[in-house]
User: What shape does this take?
Amino acid sequence: MEDLHTQFFTSAGVVRAVDGVNLEVFPGETVGIVGESGCGKTMTAFSILRLVPQPGRITEGKITFRDRDVLAMDEQEVRDFRGNEVSMIFQDPMTSMNPVTAVGAQIQEAMTAHSRFSFQEAKRRVVPLLKQVRIPEAEQRAGDYPHQFSGGMRQRSMIAMGLSNEPAMIIADEPTTALDVTVQAQVIQLLKALNQELGTAIMLITHNMALVASICSRVVVMYAGRVVEEGPVRQIFESPQHPYTWSLLRSVPRVDFEIAERLVSIKGLPPDLTRMPPGCKFHPRCRFKVDRCETEEPSLDSVGPSQRARCWVLMRNVPEAEREEAKAESAVSKDAANVLKEVASEVGLTSAPPGA
Amino acid sequence: MGAPSRGGALLQVQRFLGSRGGHLAFYVFKRVLWLVPVLFFVILVTFVLAHAAPGGPWDRNGGRELSDAVRKAKDIKYGLDKPFWEQFVIYVGNVIHFDFGTSLQSEGIDVKDRIFTGWKYTAQIGLLAFLFIVPVGIGTGVIAALRQNTWVDYVVLALSTAGAAVPNFVVGFFLVILLAIIPYKFTGGNFALPVSGPPADDAWFGIDIHYLMPVLTLAFLPIAYIGRLTRSSTLETLRQDYVRTAWAKGLPERKVVIGHVLKNSLIPVVTALGPLFAILVTGSVVVESVFQIPGVGKMFIDSIGARDYPVILGLVIQFALIVAIANLIVDILYVVIDPRIRLE
Amino acid sequence: MAVAVAGAGAPAAIDWEVPEQVGLWSDAWRRFRRNKVAVIGLCLVGILVLDAIASALLSTTGHYLWADPFKQDVNNIFAGSSAAHPFGQDELGRDVFARVLKGAEISMQIGLLTQLIILVIGGLVGLTAGYFGGWVDNLLMRFTDVMYAFPDLLFIIVVVAAMGRSLLSIFVAISVVNWVNLARLIRGQVLQLREKEFVEGARASGSTPLKIILKHLLPNSLGPIIVSLTFGIPQAIFLEAVLSYLGAGLPPPTPSWGVMTHDGYDAISADPVLVIFPAIAIAITMLSFTFIGDGLRDALDPRMRK
Assistant: This one.
């Protein structure tokens, strides 16, 4: 496989969903892209396939795939690029399949759209593909419609569809969020196996740090449309340098806490992408900020062997005591969050608007 | 051999009823059965209302006042002297044997024959309008949705909003003025499109220029209705995740639009074809009155005015049947095109 | 660092808080006002309503808004437009402008009163059927089946024929045929809302059914009901007009727009303009109400709320 190199500086409209992201994925690599919802992960993925929905637009930047400029491709070329060289698996398996076409036909269509396989070959490949993603009784189930499949089976069929053309890279956008825990594990196993057996590069988009730890070799942390930290998984987990990464890692699920509740412990919400704060985009929520953070935005600088972070402070410069203090604080704020949740549900009890 | 084969047959029946096709057959059967009480009530209500109306069938007999003796004789001849409920029971009994009686206005003519003659015109106009409505309505709706927020979209939206709100007889008036009266005045009486009456008997397939304005008038509102529905349904579908999946697969635009967008967005349009039949039936009443066409619609208005009870009832029954059959066909179509639908 | 933030020196004024929650109705009104077509519709309807009220009030004192809509002038039949008769005179020499003005009164009565009757009947049956279910619900659904079996217009024609051609029978006919839709809508709304947590909460805290209906269900399903009633107004106006046009509605001397189109179309070769005025009046009225309905539907749609 040739060198796969993706790089772009984009912006979708006035909402700067993806704001100057530099990113590369090497052949056969598994990269995790993490961050809270609304930080631009999904839009980054859509940009790669030029699927940015209206009224979004890629305004700047460059995407290169095997030395070819994706943004300069004409309709025909981009059509042949999608699903053939890079394919994508979407967040919600419930809504991502056409409800009125049989699953097998949808997979077959993914192949007949490209010239890699002949019509007959495509037809023959459907059942083995479904078997490969461990759909039981694949011969019969190929004729079923999506509503007859369980969520996990649909997601696995989506994966079958994604790998049907043996692409160089699969982008998996939150492939497990809509599934329950046991099914999640199956899907992850499947992606891992794919990467190892076929050498397909995987770009895994998620907010779940544990997931990244289990299959990725490299991780990219995004915040407010930009990369704030990147590096090898082990290194990032052991010594995160950006306070945001540090907080995210503090929210890795432990036996006694739910993910959502722990995430609340990063106080506040991600910034409104139309009205970004000046300086470092994370500073309104950062516990370790210095004056400079409020006025000047740091650049993504090298902070260790192949690790880069976008921060003026860097966690290694934060004294141990201050970190402990922040941890304690986050525990308090978790309780506060619970109280807030209760209040919210009580309010909902008396004044829920119709259809809310 | 008898027992096992009977068991096998039973098993087959069970298996059939368990299958999708079996469910459908059972559902159709239930719907047809349900039609019997519905029709009974429709007949009952119409019978009561028609007879409750002031006046009777002998009031306007060619402009001549009839003497009481003649009226009485006619009443006896057509059973109108009997008590109301007896008349009703006799009528229902006759209907079961497909006997709808004879017209009171055009005495001696079988109601079935009268209705059948009227259908010739109504069906022709209705079919022509239908053939016009479906492609134009769906076509404009799809194009407007695919070109959302362009001038094409705005024109379609404006026309379909107006089309859905302007009454059909008003549309008819404007067509008459535009295509007949104005040309007539401008050509000094030499040219005008015909505004009334059926086509000539020797016309090609019974169709000629007489039908132009009736068909346009009848099609106007349904085109707007189907166009609006198609547009909104297609816009909704375009936002669906599976359409994005289709793009991500690298399908060409034509395949995405036909195989993924339209395949889903036309489902509600197909279900609207049932109500469309009711609209066409109602429309035919108005259109045939505006353009003086002797179809069933005009016949209905005339028979109400003339208190021609058998014709009123015959027409009501066949209108109800048509609407019911159209709805049933649409429901079956719905099951055929949407695999998610399961009927109880 | 491609992002240049304006006014970076004075960031103090920028608040990162969530904007304040706006009330449902003021929010809806704000969105309705932004819809220009709907606002134009509202203005036109306002004029029509004023016309109708003024002509109704004046007629009780023996005065007219413009002229006597019944006064015949056989010497001036089919007279063209003049200062005294801006829309000309009809086949009996009556003033067409006066008749069009008076016609608004009848159309508004039909449009608004039928919706009131429909709201009362449909509301009561729908709420009962939805909230309690049981035989009321069953009866409603079966009744709907029968009603759907037959085109509305034809049924209304039969009812009006049975009751005699008068304003009252047209009210009754339209309401009797059209309340079913509203009842079904309300039933559906109630069924949906009944399962919502806040209603269960109210029930658990011991509220009576009536209280729950009035306090929780009604306000929550108000949006769709208002939209349905708004669309019902042009429908009723259309039904009266078409009935009268067909000669099955209001009797001739009445200055209803439908009757005027009937008389005007009979005389179309003598004076094609006669049919145009009432036809345009009907079209504009129906369009205005439809625009308002569209605007309301979009404004009250909770999915449109930001």
Remarks:
- Chain C has ten helices and no strands.
- Chain C has a mean pLDDT of 77.
- The radius of gyration of chain C is 25 Å.
